[in-house]
Amino acid sequence: MYCKSILAASVLMSLSAGAGAATVSITVRNADGSPLTDGVVLIDSTAAGRPVPHGPYVMEQKQIAFQPHVLIVPVGAQVAFPNRDLVRHHVYSFSKAKRFDLKLYGREDQRSIVFDTPGVVALGCNIHDTMSGFVIVTATPFYARTDTAGRVTIAGVPAGPVTVRLWSPSVRAAGNTLSQAATVPAAGYATTLTIRR
């Protein structure tokens, strides 16, 4: 399903424990009103520092699929790619943010990759053409993946001007990403943001 007015987002911003920091709750809907699952919401703020990798970060190969389908990691994160299947896999990416090639390896074996450049890394398997997945490498500490209801909650966002970005493979825009300028208040606030392609 393609998204046209994709961050038809109900944004609730409320004061959190830190002074001048807010909790941002966003609901993302497709153009038809249905929730967008596995979308990635990133909030860019000039007041934010770089994210620190904590991990562990894991992208399993299980039931001939990448699980999770979408994994968000901060710049510098090391991601493990364990094989949980009875068959061998050959994981690769030709993406600009990270090109790599993990030659054939079998059940309960594992390879790891460090993701050091922000961007979207599309994954594939040379043995199983139906396998696809994504690692989203972010330079902002404020990010989340939408749940089955299309919702995310991001805490500790600095008050002030921000850019809200939404990535999803179903977004028909450059880089599968839409963005919207917003202002995060330091007190409770409710508004609706709409990002059109």
CATH architecture descriptor name of the largest domain: Sandwich
Tell me the strand order in the biggest sheet. 7-13-12-9-10
Uncertain segments: 1-6, 8-19, 188-197
Q: Measure the end-to-end span.
A: 15 Å
Cα shape: globular
Q: Say how many strands there are.
A: 18
- Listing every helix as H and every strand as E from the N terminus to the C terminus, the arrangement reads EEEEEEEEEEEEEEEEEE
For this structure, the CATH topology of the largest domain is Immunoglobulin-like
Number of helices: 0
Could you tell me the radius of gyration in angstroms? 18 Å
Instruction: Name the average pLDDT.
Output: 85
What's the number of domains? 2
Task: Kindly state the percentage of residues in helix.
Answer: under 10%
Task: Note down, in words, how this protein is organized.
By secondary structure, the protein is mostly beta strands. The protein has two domains: 90 residues, Sandwich (Immunoglobulin-like), CATH 2.60.40; 82 residues, Sandwich (Immunoglobulin-like). It contains no helices and 18 strands. The chain has a five-stranded mixed β-sheet, with no helix packed on it. It starts with 8 loop residues before the first strand and ends with a strand. 32% of the residues are buried. Keywords: Signal. InterPro entries: Cupredoxin. This is Methylamine utilization protein.
Provide a brief overview of the structure:
With about 200 residues, the chain is an all-beta fold. The chain has strands at about 10-15, 20-25, 40-45, 55-60, 60, 65, 70-75, 75-80, 90-95, 100-105, 110-115, 120-125, 130-140, 145, 150-160, 160-165, 175-185, 190-195. The chain folds into 2 domains: about 10-50 and about 145-195, Immunoglobulin-like, CATH 2.60.40; about 55-140, Immunoglobulin-like (Sandwich), CATH 2.60.40.420.
